[in-house]
Fold this protein.
Amino acid sequence: MRSYAIVHPEGYREVKSGAGVPEEGTPLSVGIVSYVSRRDKQEPTVYLDPATPKPQRVVMFIVGDDEHVLSLGETAQLGDCLRRMSEGSLGPSTTAAIGIEGVLDEATGQKPTSEIDGMEFFDSEKAAMQTAIEVWLMEVGMEAFPRRVLHLLNALREDAKNSPPDDPANAA
């Protein structure tokens, strides 16, 4: 028997035991498996999307003046992509991943909730997120890529294009 956590679309988290961990796309009685996080040596975490349209907990990313929402599973997958990209070094991809993991912990009741309504990032973290999402898109292809994540990617690209360039005179 192997234990794993299941995160329901509403954010409720429970620990289950079974012969194996459900795979992505598997329909369960409480929802459809959208993503399985197997980060580090932690127990696997199975994120569910609702089987039928109904309210679900989401994470809001703020890019420029716009808000972009991702499901808990999409957010976890983005955090895992950032972790893989960082390869254990401390940098923008790691700090963005830590912020995402903190919000996920709050959304699933692992940590007390704060007063944060949405996540904002430094330009370097947004650039790391853009790269991580582009790698994710290349890995799975457009057909399997979540539309909400594509909208976030487009917003990050637009934000980078519209950001003022760094002034080398002010760098010193």
Summary: The first helix runs from residue 72 to 86. The mean pLDDT is 87. Helices lie at 72-86, 92-107, 123-140, 147-162.
